[in-house]
DNA sequence: CGCGGTGTTGACGCCGCTCAAAGTATGTGG
DNA sequence: CCACATACTTTGAGCGGCGTCAACACCGCG
């Protein structure tokens, strides 16, 4: 990394349910997640919640802040999180390397959001869960955090429900169906995918769809 | 279509159902819509379709192409469309002014996509339609294309269904309910909103949610 | 005048939601 | 190490919003 700038890198740490950013508050800096999972979400007036983005190790948290927006949604840690905030000069200008990382993160984020629009708009419960689990695995794998066919999966069924637009109860039942069909093994916060191709099939992806 | 020049603006024209861009094909340039509506979408293997973005007059079509991505989804004209493609040098570098417009468009697009994730994940049919119609009106208004409480609305019920993740039949029934409740007047491609506040309420937006 | 796209209506079925309760981890303090 | 609280997972019964299927009406257009 580079440490030769006025504002130097600083590491920070969050516990589960702790906020990395609150709505409409100017964040101190742009975070890169080094360890742990976080998400952003929105809550409707009557309490319904939808998670709109997941941040995994290596991800830049809200790269579009680099475009000068302030957070329109809160970001909260789902597990213990270690993060680094990208150094920036007083006027919010990032060093070239970080700038590049932001653009890359931005492009990936848009791609993933678009995929999720399709899933939330048109897919069944099994397809939604297959999409989610595949995406998690692929993202973990591309960060070197997978082990063979498995990886960590710290989300609760309630959090899965809030990502997939389902209820926790239905997530539970659907996961059981998928286990019975041999599509996934999921227990005690670990995910194993016996047959990647079968799960891709169950996710009803389009041929050129890349999740990582 | 048209032979494009390195650095000068060129205008082009599309008819309904004509493609502004196809999947995975490098587009000639980045378009700005001058008149008419277009959308991008994805079709699942079994034919289900989800529209993932709408482009209205003034919008830059796929600003994230400026990040160096090629289109992952087709873009098709919904009406007659006039567009201008932004001049760019051979290496894809945009003039500063266009660059600015792209970043602005990008930030707006992310914001809207996020809002739609919430709507598709968690909202009822009425709420979805209220969100859509409000967004359309606000976007048209901010471009000076509204007239009092009304604006053009060229979408078919089938297209509305593909945006909101519903079926055309249910869109039809839900619109009737909304008409009965005095939430909207919608006929022959024109939209009138008698009571903006009531429609906002029906859309179950969060207080700080801005749609334009 | 006929034809394809669109809007409308009805009957019926199912996927996923709601409500409720019991069972099982996880963690905390004594 | 146990007692207890809290969070999470699992299970059952019943229901409802939205989808499906199938007509029919309407309209612009060649």
TrEMBL record, chains A, B:
Residues 123-197 form the HTH crp-type domain. The keyword Membrane does not apply. Pfam families: cNMP_binding, HTH_Crp_2. It comes from the Bacteria. Keywords: DNA-binding, Transcription, Transcription regulation. The keyword Ribonucleoprotein does not apply. This is Crp/Fnr family transcriptional regulator. It comes from Sphingobium tyrosinilyticum.
């Amino acid at each position: 990394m580079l440490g030769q700038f006025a504002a130097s890198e600083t590491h920070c740490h969050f516990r589960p349910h702790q906020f990395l950013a609150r709505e409409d508050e100017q964040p101190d800096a742009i975070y890169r997640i080094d360890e742990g999972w976080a998400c952003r979400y929105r809550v409707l007036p009557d309490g319904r919640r939808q998670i709109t983005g997941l941040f995994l190790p290596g991800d830049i948290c809200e790269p579009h802040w680099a475009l000068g927006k302030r957070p329109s949604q809160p970001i909260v840690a789902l597990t213990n999180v270690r993060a680094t905030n990208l150094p920036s000069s007083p006027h919010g200008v990032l060093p070239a390397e970080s700038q590049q990382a932001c653009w890359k993160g931005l492009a990936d984020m848009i791609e993933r959001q678009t995929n999720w629009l399709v899933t939330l708009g048109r897919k069944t419960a099994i397809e939604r869960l297959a999409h989610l689990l595949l995406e998690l695995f692929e993202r973990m794998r591309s960060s070197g955090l997978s082990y063979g066919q498995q990886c960590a999966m710290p989300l609760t069924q309630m959090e899965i429900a809030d990502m997939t637009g389902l209820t926790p109860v239905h997530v539970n039942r659907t996961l059981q169906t998928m286990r019975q069909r041999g599509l996934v093994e999921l227990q005690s916060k670990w995910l194993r995918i016996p047959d990647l191709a079968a799960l891709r099939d169950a996710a009803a992806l389009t041929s050129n769809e890349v999740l990582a």
